[in-house]
Structure formats: C-alpha cells, structure tokens
Amino acid sequence: MSRELKEAIIFIMPLVLFIASFILIPVLGTFWNSLWLDVPFVARKFVGLQSYFRLVSDEQFWQATLFTTTFALVSVLIEMIFGTIIALVLNERIRMRGLLRGIALIPWAIPSVIGARVWQLIYRYDYGIANWVLQKIGLASVNWFGSPLGSFAALVLADVWRTTPFVAIIILAGLQTVRGDVLEQAQVDGANMFQRFFKITMPMIKPIIIVALLFRTIDALRVFDLVYVLTGGGPGGATTSISLYGYKFFLLGDFGYGSTVSVILFILALVLAVLYIRIGKLRAS
Amino acid sequence: MSWRIITPVILLCLSISCKRETSKLTFAVGGAPSEIEYWAEIAREFTDSTKIDIILLRQPTDTDQRRQGLVIPLRAKKSDPDVFLMDVVWVSQFAASGWLESLDPGVETRALDLSKFFSSIVEQVDTYQDQIISLPVYNDCGILYYRSDLLQKYDIRPPTTWHELVHSATLIQEKERLKNPQFYGFVWQGAQYEGLICSFLEFITSNNGSIFNSSHNLVLPTPRNISALDLMKKMIHEHKISPPNTYTEMKEEEVRLSFENGNALYERNWPYAWGLHTRPESPIKKNVAVTLIPKASAGRHVAALGGWHVGISRFSDNKKQAMEFLKYIVSYAIQKKLAIDLGWNPGRSDLYDDTEIREKIPHIEVLKRAFENSVARPNLPYYPEISEILQKYINAALSAKLSSSVALAKAQAEIEEIVKRYHE
C-alpha cells in the first residue's frame, strides 16, 4: 500500500466511522428490526415482510401518509414563496438591513417545541390570543383544532412562521452570488423587474433553491414536534403524521411495526432527495 | 426520526451490557422532584433500620418516559432496577412479558396481607395468571368536583345521575352566563389521549356497558355503549354544557384550570386537583366539594382506576432484600406518611379509616367508596394498542365526524384485528 493511500485512508476513516455508527448501523438496524415480530410480551420471531403487508392494509397509515405529504407540499410551497420574497427584500440596500436580517431569523432560532407551545397559547380556545382578538372585534370564538381542516391550517401556519426564515437565509446567500452588473445591464436593455427576476436571477440561483427545497421537504415529511404539541394527531386521528404514527408504536411496545413505519418514512425521504438532486443536476448541466 | 429513537437505544444497550456486581438494591422512581426527594428519605430510613443499601434511580416526571426507562433495562434482562413503580396500565404488559417476580411467597408466609388492600383493585390489576405480581402504592380514580356555593344558591343537591347533572348544569349555566359568558356546566377530559379512555370507561360502565364482556369478548357497539357515547356527544353539541374544545384541548390541567377559575359548575378529574382547588390562592378554595361520578338511572356508580403499583424485577439479583423493601413501602406506617406528607391516596384500604388521615383528607370517605367501585382499563398486555384505536374513534365521534354507532363499530373491527394478531 502506498503511503499516499494510507494517509488517505487515515484521513477518511473518522468520517466513515462516524457515518457508519450514527447513520448506517441505525438505518440497517431499523430495517432488520422491521422484519421481526418484536413485542415484549410475545416470543420474538422472524416474520419477513409481514409487517409491510400489514402496512398496506392499515387505513390509519395511509391517512398519516396523506396528511404528511399534503402538509409537506402546502407548507413548503408557501415557505418557498414567502422565503424568496423576504430574501429579495433583505438583499436590497435598505436601511438597517443587518438588523432586519437578524430579526427575520428569530423564529428559526427558537427551538421548535417552544415555538409550538407559543402557538398553542395563540390557538387556545378559552384564553388564546386569536380568540381574544376575535372577541374584541365582536366575533365568536373559533375552536381552531375542532375540524380536520382547521387543525391542518393551524399546523401549516405554525410551520410557515418557523421555517420561512430558514428558506429566506439560504436564498439570500444565493442572491448574493448574482452579479449586480448583469442585472444592471438587463435593466439598461429594458427588462422589467419580473423579467429580471424570472429570466436572470431565478436560473442563477436554481441550485440554491433546490437545496432549500430538499432540506425543507425532508424536514416537513418528518414533522413531529408541532403535531405532538399542538394537536396530538387529533381530531380523530386527522393530523397524525407518519413519524408520530411510528413513534406511537415504539411507545406501545410494538418495536417491529414501529420500525416498519420508520423504514417507509426513510425510503420516502430518500427517494425525494435523489429526485431533487437529479433535477438540480439536469438543470445545471 | 428512526435514528433519533434507535441511536439512544443502542447506546443504552451498550452501557447495559457492561454488567456490574452489586449487592445493593436499585429502586426506580419518578415524579415531581419533591416526591423523589421524599422517596430518598424513605429509602434512607429503610437502610438505617435494615442495613440494606438502596440506590435511587431517579426517573423523569413524564409517564411515557418513565415507562421507557424501565422497558429498556427489563428487555435486556438487566439485574437493575430491582424494585420499581408502575402505572396501573403497564402492569399486565410487564407481567405478560415475564418481567415481574411473583409475590405469592410473601402472601403465603403472611408477610403481605392482601385483606388490607381493596379487593377490586388487587383482582383487576395485581393478579396475573392467579399470581400476585404487584401491589398498589398510590390509588387514583375519577371523582366529580362541584361548586358547593352555586348548588346552594340554586338549591340543588349534588347530582347522582347523569340526568340530574345535565338538568342542573343547563339551568345554572344559563343563569351564570349572565355574569360570566365563559361559564360551562360540566368540564371533563375529551382530547385524544389516554385520559379520554378513562372518561369513556366511566360513561359506559355507569350505563352498565363495558368494553369486554364477562367471557372476555370485545363488545363495543352495544346499545348501552352507544347511548353512553351519545350522551358524551350531546353534552358538547346539544346541551352545550361542555365547551367545544372538550374534544380538542381538554386534558386534566385544562379541565382543572377551567373549574378553578370559576368557569365551570362540575368537573370530572382525579383526586390531585383537590389540593390545588383548596390552596389559599385558589379563587374557589372554600366552595369546592366532591362526590361520586354520576350513574345512569338504572346503572351504578363507577370510577376509572389509576395509580402506581410496586413490583419486583424477575431479573433482580437481590430478590429477598427486594421483597423486604416492597413490604416496607406498602406497610401501614409508610403508606400513612405518604398520605399525610404528600397527600397521596393510600394503596392500602385500612388507612381510609385512620382518624389522622380523615382529618388531613376530609373527602377520603368519598374516595374510599370510589375505590370500592373502581373499574380498571382492560387488563391486557396489548391494551396500549387498544387504547390508541379507541382514542381515535371516540374522539372522532365527539368531534361529530362519526356517529357513535359507526365509531364504535369501526373501533371494534380494528381492535379485533389486534386481538387476533396476539392470539393466533
């Protein structure tokens, strides 16, 4: 073995070990677990893909999948739009830009469970701020979490509040790579604001947008803390996310089936990640 | 998501495999920090008199985390903890998993006297395959709190039937709304969580309904259960004596605060609320009283059972000393200390006639009757899965998304699948 190769291995080893012990082994372990009937009060036995068949006919799992994907789609779309707008504003030479950039990041800096608790205080039926405002302007109180749609909207709003700054900061970083002289030249040539954005800025920051989309979609698919705190999956199971559904089985003691749900969530996120990266590469080349 | 759970599990398993030799007893106990401190004191006194050292394994307050903290070492057949407290609903799962040592030897040698405990509780919770596997340390059950000043003002007696409750709640709510638009007749736990099952169990059992019949068959969509669930729905949507957020937000603390702030006439809650309702800064401190949960006119008074039970690990390497400690915890003296200093409702029934305790907890007479009529949640190892399904469908019925009969029929079908899975 050449000295160069040895050195390379030594340098790469820590990273490989880290990924193996904290990502690869847990993922493979979860998959292996999903092939077993693993409940403490029943003899552990190998059942192959049985849990996956159970999943196919599990109505609540499909309900959770439908909720999770709709939630990811709607909230990420809104976050991308608002994030881009905020990034464009913060990229302009406006007064107190540094301060504004800092303020815009606050929701993202708040731990999500604490953010969710704050939203709980807003949505509370009896002493929530939202209903207090409604009462002050002479309207009746609304039971925000009373209907599936109301719960869904409340969760999306809370998620948009928290993660739009994250999208904004990533896109802002992208915007700063767009050369000013190109835009000025376009302006001289008579391109209006929208033409400049969609024809020049957008294509130039596309890779960055893909990155933001990738992070946000995967994160939204794993949504747990918001749902856990705000609705607990209710009303009647309408807002149970896949990760909350899987977590409940770990809590109940059904480790095999909980692992199965987790594996599906992992595959879903993996497929999306590959898809995004593919799209990003195609456009870039 | 999966990594977040699996990684700590793997790390814990690794640490567990490093087994250490010890002749000390490990006692796992959770709860509020002050409660754990109290247990530390009890353990110290035990060590002083017996020379058996106790290591206190401090657990968090959260019930689910306490359960995980026990399941992980027990699954790994670890010798510690030797003695631990279990929530009433875990006992059957722990027993069926083969984690609990039989206490029968102690019963046979009369070291443990079962006649000093509520037979309804010992039969429903602490007996597994004709063996005693745990004993109650702290009992809990549903009771009805009411505003004694308001009932007096309108010259109404505390309700004994659901009909009386609905009637008086409607009447008083209408009058009190003039002063307080936030006022509701009856607040109870209806959110989608474990507490909903306790409310549901009380409504159906007090109507002579049940989840399983006497031959252990699942019988959810029966006329009695359907009419009980209908009553729960009607309280929210028709009589409107329970607030609209009953099925979205109402858990123990929400219910307690609503009542304590003077916004409710009746409250279904656990005995812990008494101490808070009557503390000096409570707005209703002088105007609260308790009675049994109402019944249907042809039904009976019942109370959903909660509480904590003590057991010994099958894998303990100090079973003899563990038995000594268990005996000590359920002894008259220690149970009395817990009742007087922490306000806990004793696991032993003979303490309910103790004069000092009667002075300290004046409503203990009501609690005694409630425990005698207590009804436990299904005593099955896979109960948590049953509970998840029931919570979802009862909550869907309360939200008026499903009719009571459809909700219970759907729950029946889904739970039957689970029962089949574990009995094939």
From TrEMBL, chain A:
GO terms for cellular component: plasma membrane. Pfam families: BPD_transp_1. Keywords: Cell membrane, Membrane, Transmembrane, Transmembrane helix, Transport. InterPro entries: MetI-like, MetI-like_sf. Residues 65-276 form the ABC transmembrane type-1 domain. It comes from the Bacteria. The chain crosses the membrane at residues 9-32, 61-90, 102-122, 152-175, 196-218, 255-277. Its main location: membrane. It is a multi-pass membrane protein. CDD domains: TM_PBP2 (cd06261). It is found in: Cell membrane. Belongs to the binding-protein-dependent transport system permease family. This is ABC transporter permease. It comes from candidate division WOR_3 bacterium SM23_42.
From TrEMBL, chain B:
The keyword Hydrolase does not apply. PANTHER family: ABC TRANSPORTER PERIPLASMIC-BINDING PROTEIN YCJN-RELATED (PTHR43649:SF34), ARABINOSE-BINDING PROTEIN-RELATED (PTHR43649). Coiled coil: none annotated. This is Transcriptional antiterminator. CDD domains: PBP2_TMBP (cd14750). It comes from candidate division WOR_3 bacterium SM23_42. It holds the Pfam family SBP_bac_1. Keywords: Signal, Transport. It comes from the Bacteria. Belongs to the bacterial solute-binding protein 1 family. Gene3D superfamilies: Periplasmic binding protein-like II. InterPro entries: Bact_solute-bd_prot1 (IPR050490), SBP (IPR006059).
